[in-house]
Design goal:
Elements lengths: L16 H4 L4 H13 L3 H4 L4 E6 L11 H14 L3 E6 L16 H14 L4 E6 L4 H12 L3 E5 L6 E3 L2 E3 L3 H11 L5 H10 L12 H11 L15 H20 L3 H4 L2 H13 L5 H12 L6 H8 L16 H6 L2 H9 L15 H4 L25 E5 L2 E7 L10 E9 L2 H7 L12 E4 L20 H5 L6 E4 L11 E2 L20 E5 L4 E4 L3 H10 L11 H8 L25
Parallel strand pairs: 1-2, 1-3, 3-4, 9-10, 10-11, 11-12
Antiparallel strand pairs: 5-6, 7-8, 9-13, 13-14
Helix pairs in contact: 4-10, 5-6, 6-13, 7-8, 9-12, 12-13, 12-14
The structure holds FE2/S2 (inorganic) cluster (FES).
C-alpha cells in the first residue's frame, strides 16, 4: 500500500505498458523506435516513463538554466528507476512576447495536456516559472491528471546599481518615472538597464512569477521549499534531482494532481497570495487552475480572505526586500510556518505527506523580511475585489501597493480609447488632467487587448510627474505586472470591448472609488447610461484567421479565469485508441 492510500502499481499497470510492454505490431514499432533513439530495453522495460515538459527557450531569460536543470531532473529519474524523456513546450517569455503572454497561456495549457495524453507517459515534471508558464503547465497537467510535479525556475539574483539593490519591474517603473521627471540622465538609465537582471531565473520581486511559484508550492504541487531557491544556487540543482526522484515514486503511488488539489488547498493559496501581497494576476490564474480541478473559486472568496489576512512578506513592490533575501530568511517554508494558524495544514502534497508535515521545523531567520502575524507590514486588504456599476462582475486592485490617500477618491475621468490613444496623448501638455483625475483605459481586456496585456499601470502624465505627483487613480480592463504599483484598478468586467460599462464612460464623468466599501461607481444616471448604450457599436473582430479566432470565440472574462470555455473541468477526455 502506498502513502496515498492506493495500492502500489505493478509494471503492467503503467500507462506506458500499452506502448512498450505488449506483444503486438504497434509495440514492435514503439520499441524499435526507442532503440533507434539509442535506448536499450533495459532503459525502459517495465519502468515509469516520465515526461519532462521543459519551457526552455533561447528567448526566455528566466529559463536559461532549464537545459541544465532538465539533465539534473533526468539524473533523479534514472536514480529512482524511471525512464526520462524531455519534451519541449512553447516558452511564454514575458519580456518579449506581444501583445501579451496571456494570449498564449491557454495554448501552453492545451499543449501540455495533449502531450501528456498522446505520448506514452506515466508521469510528468513540469518546468516553468516565467509568469504564465506556471499556471499553464499546472492547468494542462490537472486536466490530464496523471502524476505530475512542478519544478519552479526560482528567482534571479538581486539587481544592483550604485550601492542600491534593484528589483525586477518595480525599480524599472520607479526609475523610469524619475527619468521622465528629469531626475536621472541617459547614462544612469543605461547603468540601471545593465544591472537590474544579472542571472537566470524569474523576476525577483513578489511579482507574478514569485507569487505563482509560491502558490504552486502551497497547493502541494512542488517539493517543500522549492519555489524560493534562487535559480543559479546549487540547491536549485539538487532540488531538480530530488524532484526527478520523487516523480517516479509518485507514479508507483498513483498520486495525481486532483488527489492533491482541493477546495481547502485553494483556500490556502488565496490566503498565501494575501499574505505575500501577491500579484493581482494570481487571481485570474487561481480561478482558472481551480476550474480545471472542478473547484469553483469565485472572486468573493478572495475578498473574504483579503479581509482577514495581513501582508507579512516584506518584499517589493509592497515592501523592502527581494527574493534572495526571502530565501536566506527561510523562504516560503518559514513564511508558511508563520502563517500556519490561518492555513489548512492537513492538505496533501506531492511529497505524500501533509502540508503541515512538510513545513515542520521551518525556521524564520529574518523576522524583518518574513514578519510574524502580529507584526505585519500592512494589515488585511493587500489585494481586494471591487464591485459597482462600473464593474458589475468585479474588478481588482492592490491597496498594499497604492497610496492610502487615494483609497477613497472621487474624480473626473480622462478616457483613452485604447493603448495607442493613451500613448499618443498621455504626455501632451494640453491634456486636461490634474492629480485628482481618474485615468481610464479601455479595449485592453481579454478580447480587446487582445490577451489582457499588462497595461493597467497607466503612466502618470509627465506634467503631473514634474509637479511631484507619483500616484493617481487608474482604471482599466487590462492586467498589470505583479511588479507594478499604484492605485490601479484592473480586470474590470465585463470588459469594454464586449460592451461592459467601461465602454460608456466619457471624459469628465465623475468616478467614485471606495476601497473600504469595495465599491467602484460611475456617477452617471441609469437613464443616461441606457442612452449611451443604445448608441454603442461593437468593434470589428480582432482576428480573421488562426489561433486568434479560436481565442476570441472561447475566452472567458477575468472573473472566470480567462480560460477557454471548453477547457473547464468536464467529463474525462478518453485515452488515445490503442492503434
Ligand atoms: Fe520572466 Fe518576469 S520576465 S518572470
Amino acid at each position: 500500500m502506498s502513502v496515498s492510500g492506493k495500492p502500489r502499481k505493478k509494471s503492467e499497470e503503467l500507462r506506458s505498458h500499452r506502448w512498450f510492454g505488449v506483444d503486438d505490431l504497434r509495440s514492435f514499432g514503439h520499441r524499435s523506435r526507442a532503440y533507434q533513439i539509442g535506448f536499450g530495453r533495459e532503459d525502459f522495460a517495465g519502468k515509469p516513463v516520465i515526461g519532462i515538459i521543459n519551457t526552455w527557450s533561447d528567448i526566455n531569460p528566466c529559463h536559461t538554466h532549464f537545459r541544465q536543470r532538465a539533465e539534473e531532473v533526468k539524473r533523479g529519474i534514472w536514480q529512482a528507476g524511471g525512464f526520462p524523456l524531455e519534451l519541449p513546450a512553447i516558452s511564454l517569455s514575458e519580456p518579449f512576447q506581444k501583445p501579451s503572454t496571456m494570449l498564449y497561456r491557454n495554448l501552453l495549457a492545451m499543449e501540455t495536456e495533449e502531450m501528456l495524453r498522446s505520448y506514452p507517459l506515466d508521469g510528468a515534471v513540469l518546468m516553468g516559472g516565467c509568469d504564465k508558464t506556471t499556471p499553464a503547465l499546472i492547468m494542462g497537467a490537472t486536466s490530464m491528471n496523471i502524476p505530475s510535479i512542478f519544478l519552479p525556475a526560482g528567482p534571479m539574483l538581486r539587481g544592483h546599481w550604485r550601492g542600491q539593490t534593484l528589483g525586477s519591474g518595480s525599480d524599472a517603473w520607479k526609475y523610469w518615472a524619475e527619468k521622465r521627471a528629469g531626475n536621472i540622465d541617459d547614462n544612469d538609465w543605461r547603468e540601471i538597464e545593465e544591472g537590474i537582471a544579472r542571472s537566470p531565473g524569474h523576476c525577483m520581486t513578489m511579482g507574478t512569477a514569485s507569487t505563482m511559484g509560491a502558490i504552486a508550492e502551497v497547493l502541494g504541487l512542488t517539493l517543500s521549499g522549492a519555489s524560493s531557491i534562487p535559480a543559479p544556487d546549487s540547491s536549485h540543482s539538487r532540488m531538480a534531482t530530488r524532484t526527478g526522484r520523487r516523480i517516479v515514486e509518485m507514479v508507483w503511488d498513483d498520486l495525481k494532481p486532483r488527489d492533491v488539489l482541493s477546495a481547502a488547498s485553494f483556500d490556502n493559496a488565496v490566503t498565501l497570495a494575501m499574505a505575500v501581497g501577491g500579484s493581482t494576476n494570481c487571481i485570474i490564474h487561481l480561478v482558472a487552475m481551480a476550474g480545471r480541478a472542478g473547484i469553483d473559486l469565485p472572486l468573493s472568496r478572495f475578498d473574504m480572505f483579503s479581509r482577514k489576512v495581513p501582508v507579512i512578506a516584506n518584499l517589493r513592490p509592497n515592501g523592502k526586500f527581494l527574493m534572495e533575501d526571502f530565501y536566506f530568511a527561510g523562504g516560503l517554508r518559514a513564511l508558511l510556518g508563520e502563517l500556519a494558524p490561518m492555513l489548512e495544514l492537513g492538505c496533501a502534497t506531492v511529497s505524500g505527506k501533509t502540508l503541515g508535515e512538510d513545513i515542520a521545523g521551518a525556521r524564520n531567520n529574518e523576522p524583518d523580511v518574513i514578519r510574524p502575524l502580529d507584526n505585519p507590514i500592512s494589515g488585511p486588504g493587500g489585494l481586494c475585489v471591487l464591485f459597482g456599476n462600473l464593474a458589475p462582475n468585479g474588478a481588482v486592485m492592490k491597496p498594499a501597493a497604492a497610496d492610502p490617500r487615494l483609497a477613497k477618491h472621487t474624480g473626473p475621468a480622462v478616457v483613452f480609447d485604447d493603448y495607442n490613444d493613451m500613448a499618443a496623448r498621455i504626455d501632451d501638455p494640453d491634456l486636461d488632467v490634474t492629480a485628482d483625475s481618474v485615468l481610464v483605459l479601455r479595449n485592453s481586456g481579454p478580447q480587446g487587448g487582445p490577451g489582457m496585456p499588462e497595461w493597467g499601470m497607466l503612466p502618470v502624465p509627465k506634467k503631473l510627474l514634474a509637479q511631484g505627483v507619483r500616484d493617481m487613480v487608474r482604471i482599466s480592463d487590462a492586467r498589470m505586472s505583479g511588479t507594478s504599483y499604484g492605485t490601479c484598478i484592473l480586470h474590470v468586467s465585463p470588459e469594454s470591448y464586449v460592451g461592459g460599462p467601461l465602454a460608456l464612460v466619457r471624459s469628465g464623468d465623475m468616478i467614485a472609488l471606495d476601497v473600504a466599501e469595495r465599491r467602484l461607481d460611475l456617477l452617471v444616471s441609469d437613464a443616461e447610461l441606457a442612452a449611451r448604450r443604445a448608441n454603442w457599436k461593437a468593434p470589428p473582430p480582432r482576428y480573421e484567421r488562426g489561433y486568434g479566432v479560436m481565442f476570441a470565440q472561447h475566452i472567458t472574462q477575468a472573473e472566470r479565469g480567462c480560460d477557454f470555455d471548453y477547457l473547464h473541468a468536464g467529463p474525462a477526455t478518453p485515452e488515445p485508441e490503442i492503434h
